[in-house]
Design a protein that fits this description.
Largest sheet of chain A: 4 strands, mixed
CATH class of the largest domain in chain A: Mainly Alpha
Oligomer: homodimer
Number of domains of chain A: 2
Number of strands of chain A: 4
Shape of chain A: globular
Strand order of the largest sheet of chain A: 2-1-3-4
Order of helices and strands of chain A: EHEHEEHHHHH
CATH topology of the largest domain in chain A: Glutathione S-transferase Yfyf (Class Pi), Chain A, domain 2
Radius of gyration of chain A: 17 Å
Helix content of chain A: 40-55%
Chain lengths: 210, 210
Amino acid sequence: MLTLYDFEMAPSPRRARILLAEKGIAYTAIQVDLRQQEQLGDAFRAINPRCTVPALRLEDGGILTDNAGIAAYLEATYPEPPMMGRTALERAEVASWNARIEMEGFMAIAEALRNSAPAMKDRALTGSVNYAQIPELAQRGLARAQQFFVELDAHLAGREFVATERFSLADITAVVALDFARVVRIKPGDDHPNLMRWRKAMGERPSMAT
Amino acid sequence: MLTLYDFEMAPSPRRARILLAEKGIAYTAIQVDLRQQEQLGDAFRAINPRCTVPALRLEDGGILTDNAGIAAYLEATYPEPPMMGRTALERAEVASWNARIEMEGFMAIAEALRNSAPAMKDRALTGSVNYAQIPELAQRGLARAQQFFVELDAHLAGREFVATERFSLADITAVVALDFARVVRIKPGDDHPNLMRWRKAMGERPSMAT
C-alpha cells in the first residue's frame, strides 16, 4: 500500500490527500508534526531530504518528494478518473491553471504567512535551509493573493470548474489555496460571487472533507 | 503552423524554443520586445492577457499562455521523443525536478535580477501588475540560487541527465536557469564539477543554440 507522509493542518499535503481521494486510492498516512519541526529531524530527513510534506512512499520503497511528482505518478498509474485532462488541449489547460494557481495564489499566500508569523521566524521558506522573514514580502504576498482572487473570480464567471469541463487538479489546487488564505485573513466575499459559488459546489465533493 | 510569441534574449521563451527544437516541430516566431515593454501594450495583451512570453498560438487560433501549458500540449501532441518521461515513475521524476528547478533555481535568479536591476524598477514580477523591488529579496534570491547550484551539482554526480536516463524537460529548464544566472553573476566553477560536465555535454545538442 502507498504511504503518505502528511500533516493534517498543512495545505500542501492536503492537495495530495484530495487527489488520492478523488482517484479512490487506498493509502496509509503518517503524520509529520510540522509544529514540532519534525520535518527537519534526522528521521524524516532520511525519508525526504527536502524536508517537506507531502511525500509518497511507493510499494517498492521509492519516494516521491513533492506534489508535482505525486500528481504525475498517480495520473499515469491510476488514469481514471483523469485529473490532468484527457486531450492535449485539456492537458495544457489543467497544467497551465495549476501552475498559475501555485505561483500567483498559493505562493503569494505562503509569502504573506511565512514572512509575518512569529512562529515562522527564520522559516520564510519551506525546506532544509533557514531564511529570514522579509516584512515587505509579506505585504506583497497579501496584495498578490487579493489580486489573484479577483482574477480567479472573473475567470470562473459562467464556469463550473477552473479548467476544462470537468473537475481537475486545478480545482484541487485552487480549493486548497482558497482555504489556506484564511490564515492571512483573506476570504472570498460579496465581491467574488463566482468564487463563492464554485467553492460551495466543490464543498459537496466528499474528497474535500479530507 | 504554430506561432511562438518569443523574445530571443529572455530565458522563459528559450525553454519553449529548446523544447520545440528537441521535438523537431516547425513554427513561426514573433518577437515581443520586452525591452520596450511591448508585452504590456494593447496589441500583445489581446493575445496573452497575462502579458508574458512565451505564448504559443495553435493552428486553430487557440493560445497557450505559459511554459506549463506549452509543454503539456506539445508532449501530448508530439509524443516522440518523450520529454516528460515514459513510465509513471519517469513522469514523476521529470515533473518533480522540473518544478524544483523552477522554484529553487529559476525563481531565485529572477528574484535576484528583478529586485535589483534599475531597468526593472516596479517590475519585480512578470505580468500585468507592477510590484516594487524588494532589495532583501534580491539578496535572498542570490543566496538561494547559489545553494541550488550546490545541490544540483551534488545530484548530478555520476548522472548524465537531471532526471531519468534520458534527456528531458528537466534538462531544458536547468540549462536555461544556469545560463540565466549569468545576469546576476552566478556561474558554475571549480566547486561544481558535475554541473560543469553536464552543461558542457548539453551544449553539444543542436537545440541549445536556439
